[in-house]
Amino acid sequence: MKKQNPKAIQDLFEKIALDHLFIQTLETQMSDRLDFHEVSVWGVKSALQAAFEAGRMAATQSPTHTNRA
Fold first, then answer.
1. Fewest CB atoms less than 10 Å from the CB: which of 3, 36, 59, 69?
2. Does the model's pTM come out above 0.85?
3. d(CA 61, CA 69)
4. How far apart are the first and last CA of the chain?
């Protein structure tokens, strides 16, 4: 299995957080107001679906991908 680039993974996490949860950064800000967010359940579901789809796409694009039963 091909090892993923940590920067690319972090960028993907941040894009999902912004696009689906409206969270500007995943960096710790040392402030409750900035570090804790109230999000809708449909936002969480959407973010999880995006992450799942990204993983599925990465797995199918991997040159070493094989189907195992």
1. 69
2. no
3. 19
4. 17
Higher pLDDT pick, 49 / 59: 49
Amino acid at 9: I
How is residue 34 written in tokens?
């900035």
Q: Contact at 8 Å (CB) between 21 and 50? A: no
Per DSSP, helices labelled H in the chain are 6-21, 32-35, 41-61
Which has the closest alpha carbon to 16: 57, 54, 53, 47? Answer: 47
| pLDDT tens-digit readout, 13-57 | 999 999 999 999 999 999 999 999 999 999 999 999 999 999 999
Whether the CB-CB separation of 21 and 44 falls below 8 Å is answered with yes
Torsion sign, CA atoms 33, 36, 28, 41: negative
